[in-house]
Write a structure and sequence with these properties.
The termini are far apart. The protein has about 180 residues and is mostly helical. The model has no long low-confidence stretch (mean pLDDT about 85). The chain has helices at about 1-10, 15-20, 25-30, 35-60, 65-75, 90-95, 105-125, 135-155, 160-170. Helix 5 (about 65-75) runs antiparallel to helix 7, helix 5 packs antiparallel against helix 9 and helix 7 packs across helix 8 (about 135-155).
């Protein structure tokens, strides 16, 4: 998973895969049938381990869903000193014109993120943090698109100040923020 995240499907050679897994070609092919099979398994693991975990932590669990959406965005670029290899979904989506067998895995992960945004937006509306007439489906789709664009900019080394401005714009696009009535 980490190898494909850093190098992409085409950038990872069979030798790289052997070194990353500790498996020999025969074992790899018996288990996964091909590099394609291994890549699909890595993408599935990324969806199950990374995407679902990030959606849960930032979008499903926070008591303030708007703050959760903000943290979902900012956690993509507030990663510390090590350069982040980016999101395997985003990296694969950019590369997927060459890796068509990965498209369903990419869609599964993107759908999970969009669903997480929709859940957070629905809860924010119920808490009167966002306008009651907010179109949740449209807003969740827009947030997904903005988030994916942000990830590409992160990968391109865009300064954090600009990434924060983009995040603020994404949240402002949802409508006037309100104080929760508690």
């Amino acid at each position: 998973m980490r190898l494909f995240r850093r190098r992409g499907y085409h950038g990872a050679s069979l030798r790289d895969v052997e070194e990353a897994t500790g498996l020999h070609p025969g074992s790899l092919y018996r288990t996964f049938e091909s590099k394609d099979g291994l890549f699909r398994a890595a993408l599935d693991a990324y969806n199950d381990q990374v995407v679902q975990d990030r959606v849960r932590i930032h979008l499903l669990e926070p008591s303030d869903p708007v703050a959760g959406i903000r943290s979902f965005f900012t956690s993509a670029f507030e990663t510390g000193l090590d350069p982040d290899p980016g999101c395997l979904l985003t990296n694969t989506a950019v590369e997927s014109y060459i890796v068509p067998q990965a498209v369903s895995g990419v869609h599964r992960g993107l759908d999970a993120i969009e669903s997480g945004f929709a859940d957070a937006l629905t809860r924010a509306r119920a808490l009167d943090l966002l306008p009651a007439d907010l179109d949740v489906e449209e807003s969740a789709a827009r947030l997904l698109a903005l988030y994916q664009g942000l990830l590409v900019l992160v990968r391109a080394g865009t300064p954090r100040t600009k990434l924060h401005t983009i995040t603020d714009g994404a949240l402002a696009s949802l409508g006037p923020a309100k104080e929760a009535q508690r």
